[in-house]
Amino acid sequence: MNKITGKLKMEDLFSERVAGMHSSEIRELLKLLDRPEMISFAGGLPNPDAFPIEKMKRVVSHVMEVHAREALQYGTTEGHAKLRHVICGGMDDHYGVSGLDVKNIMITNGSQQGLNLLSQLFLNPGDRVLTSDPTYLGAILTFRSYQAEIESIPLDDQGIRVELLAERLAYLEKAATLPKFIYLIPSFQNPTGVTIPEENRREIYRLLEKYGLLLIEDDPYGLLRFEGDHVPLLKSMDVSDRVVYLGTFSKILAPGYRVAWMIATEEIITKATIAKQAQDLCTNTFGQYCVFEAIYHDVLFPHIAEIVRLYKGKRDCMLTSMDRYFPDNISYTRPQGGMFLWVTLPESYDAFKMLSSAIEKNVAYVIGTPFFPNGGGHNTFRLNYSYASDDLIEEGIRRLADVIKAQ
Amino acid sequence: MNKITGKLKMEDLFSERVAGMHSSEIRELLKLLDRPEMISFAGGLPNPDAFPIEKMKRVVSHVMEVHAREALQYGTTEGHAKLRHVICGGMDDHYGVSGLDVKNIMITNGSQQGLNLLSQLFLNPGDRVLTSDPTYLGAILTFRSYQAEIESIPLDDQGIRVELLAERLAYLEKAATLPKFIYLIPSFQNPTGVTIPEENRREIYRLLEKYGLLLIEDDPYGLLRFEGDHVPLLKSMDVSDRVVYLGTFSKILAPGYRVAWMIATEEIITKATIAKQAQDLCTNTFGQYCVFEAIYHDVLFPHIAEIVRLYKGKRDCMLTSMDRYFPDNISYTRPQGGMFLWVTLPESYDAFKMLSSAIEKNVAYVIGTPFFPNGGGHNTFRLNYSYASDDLIEEGIRRLADVIKAQ
Fold first, then answer.
1. Cβ of A273 and B23 within 8 Å?
2. CA-based nearest residue to B366, from B340, B347, B346
3. How far is Cα A290 from Cα A52, in angstroms, rounded to an integer?
4. CB distance A178–B1 less than 8 Å?
5. Chain centroid, CA B364 distance in Å
6. CA distance B118 to chain A (A)
7. Peptide bond preceding B232: is omega within 30 degrees of 0, i.e. cis?
8. Does B27 sit within 8 Å of A77, measured CB to CB?
9. Radius of gyration, CA atoms only, chain B
10. How high is the pLDDT of residue A19?
11. Of B4, B56, B201, B279, which has the fewest CB atoms closer than 10 Å, so is most exposed?
12. Which is nearest to B288 in space by CA: B263, B261, B259?
């Protein structure tokens, strides 16, 4: 409690949840990487060459010419009605999820806000969330900001290990500490690039049914498949309304509009809408109009094929360089899509200590440890292949190989 | 805890804070008001005639021509560096707040997100916030979503009653229940339109010093002054870092970009940035570029004079009509700026019951009760004069007078 005093006692003012807040290691690190000579595989940015700039010039002009009075105004909290409607159809045509109504869809300020809204709706301090190990750092930060406990299950090149998940759920059920929800990125996961195969997804869905659980399917990269067969979404198996789906235009159009969507039952969407009213009233209307018109004028879907071609080339370039330059005792994933791959060094290596040598040689990665909610991963790191040019990818991997060999 | 069951028990899954969530009465009401024949004074929207659409066409084209690769990309959580820099200068030139550094400024997804971030940083469940009575409904919703207790102090045509504020703080100090912060909209308050005079602001600042308190100064309408002298911001008196200032481009440029700013100590901005990372990573970059270029190409400030001329005419039209048609026993505020005025009926009237008669006659207002955090205001309502055309303002007030007279 404050005293009568000339000085503010900030430490008495901040809430308890502030104690659990730490700056994202990735974001802090990114600030160090602004040197022009740095080859950075550390970010998670789409390549600006993947933005359909010329086509979007016409789309944005059209929004200003025809829709400015609405696009510059406040919008509803749920989001632009026409955009929600076209997402309904798109989920059927492009994602294999049928039977949706506009009432099942809300627009969010990035999928990160979807995660935050769901955390606000479901998590009391001390509640459990179950994730794979490693998992998306932004999800860890959000769950922790609600003082949740994170249970994590190891993954392999088939994603979360389903037999371990089944064992853990049986244990947690007996201990009456089942999680409020499971959080997964089933396709081309951040940070590892791995994809859960269909039969494992069906087993995961059976576990949801068995234990009466909810699952958040975070799917920013699903349409960025370079090769191999499409794997059905968990949402497409969801006969019992157990899956909340998060999609985004950040990786398939452009992140700068900050437009994403959440699919859930009408009950959850209604509560999430009330929560969003108190958080930010609405997502930027202008960006929603730009995204809708990009879909309506058929800019979006033909463009995804171009992104896939661009990123496939970059992934090939990175993997070919790694196969060529990396020592044999280094293993790494071979993602069929998305933006990231994952490197595992021998146990005796320390990716964090190695990073300063790498930065000295002007190449950077993200160390693996922050992606592990409960520790571990000292000998792992994440590489992003979507951002750097092909020449720099090869040169960066060559430098990184030198750093590894010097250990 | 979930049971092994085929059915999800949603009531067991939702967090405790969901119990305190209710849909905003205003937003729910607005959905009923879509009839084209309705004259609505119920909204809080800027007038699209106040959007500088022709000038913004050139600004938006410029952003796409010159800055698309950056404007369509993710941005930093703190916000577009050039925009933060120009806000620094603008706070000195246009708001009378000097000595700021870029590190004191962050960009938010509307001021509503500023309120949400500050609530996350400061409010534990059960903590106290002190507001005027009535106050902005969106603030009440946000504070309640963090399970805060709201203490409220009556206002009159000079804003919050400073002598009552002093008494209450003395009492709360003795009871060791001082608020975590005070929340005020000192200029052209929503919902009443009243402005706190300079001497009262200085007294409020002395109380902050005396009791070691923080204050949030929410200032969406400050530059929309139609007449009378500028009143210095509380932030301009802030020698001891006690005031967090919230500004927005929603009412002086356009809400559709969803760009606002927060000014606070570097410590608070750093923590708010960490909180925002977990909430939504960043505010939409495209909107931030549009707003920055609007300021840089001198579209913004000359345009504010046009908004002021437009809204002054509408306020005059509404007040003249009220003076002419309303019975003598109805009192109302005469705001010198902003977008709202406030009507007080005799004690025996019920603004909620009267609303159905009003809607029958195709005229609408917002009842006062939701703006009172602790009850009261049954005989009050808010009128918005920024949105309707002058003709409809006069016709709507005439209808409303008939409704009042029929009571």
1. yes
2. B340
3. 12
4. yes
5. 20
6. 9
7. no
8. yes
9. 22
10. 72
11. B4
12. B259
Nearest CA in chain A to B290: A286
Residue B105 phi/psi, 5-degree rounding, is -125, 130
What's chain A's average pLDDT?
Answer: 94
**H helix and E strand count, chain A:** 14, 14
Which residues on chain B are in Cβ contact (under 8 Å) with A284? Answer: 109, 256-259, 284, 286-287
Sign of the Cα torsion A259, B32, B260, A145 reads negative
Mean pLDDT over B148-155 rounds to: 97
- Which residues have a Cβ under 8 Å from the Cβ of A1 and sit 6 or more positions away? A12, B176, B177, B178
Is the pLDDT confidence value at B29 over 50?
Answer: yes
Contact A286 B256 (CB under 8 A): yes
Residues of A in contact with B272 (CB under 8 A): none
Minimum Cα–Cα distance from B240: chain A residue: A7
**How many other C-beta atoms are found inside a 10 Å radius of the C-beta of residue B101?**
11
C-beta of residue B282 within 8 angstroms of C-beta of residue B196: no
Interface of B with A in 306-345 (CB under 8 A): none
**pLDDT confidence bin for A1, thresholds 50/70/90:** very low
What pLDDT was estimated at residue B310?
A: 97
Q: Are residues B97 and B219 in contact, defined by beta-carbon separation less than 8 angstroms?
A: no
Which amino acid makes up residue B275?
A
The partner residue sitting opposite A279, judged by closest CB among B74, B113, B210, is: B113
Q: Out of A16, A45, A72, whose CB is closest to B51? A: A72
Mutation pick from B205, B286, B384 vs chain A, by most beta carbons of A within 10 Å, is B286
Report whether A236 contacts A100 (CB < 8 A).
no
pLDDT of residue B10: 78
d(Cα A39, Cα A397) in Å, to the nearest integer? 9
Query: What would the two tokens of residue A65 be?
Result: 């010419």
Contact in structure between B283 and B79 (CB atoms under 8 Å): yes
Backbone angles phi, psi at A129, to 5 degrees: -125, 145
CA distances from A244 to A181, A222, B148 (A): 10, 15, 29
- For chain A, give the number of residues: 407
Half-sphere exposure of B110 (CA within 13 A, CB side): 27
Q: Do B274 and A24 touch (CB under 8 A)?
A: yes
**CB–CB contact A15 B127 (8 Å):** yes
Q: Which amino acid is at B390?
A: D
Which pLDDT score, from 0 to 100, does residue B35 have? Answer: 79
CA atoms within 13 A on the CB side of A43: 18
The per-residue pLDDT for range B208-245, each reduced to its tens digit, is: 999 999 999 999 999 999 999 999 999 999 999 999 99
A 8-27: CB under 8 A from B? 8-10, 13-18, 21-24, 27
Range 211-240 of B in CB contact (< 8 A) with A: 211-214, 240
Q: Which residues on chain B are in Cβ contact (under 8 Å) with A256?
A: 71-75, 284-286, 289
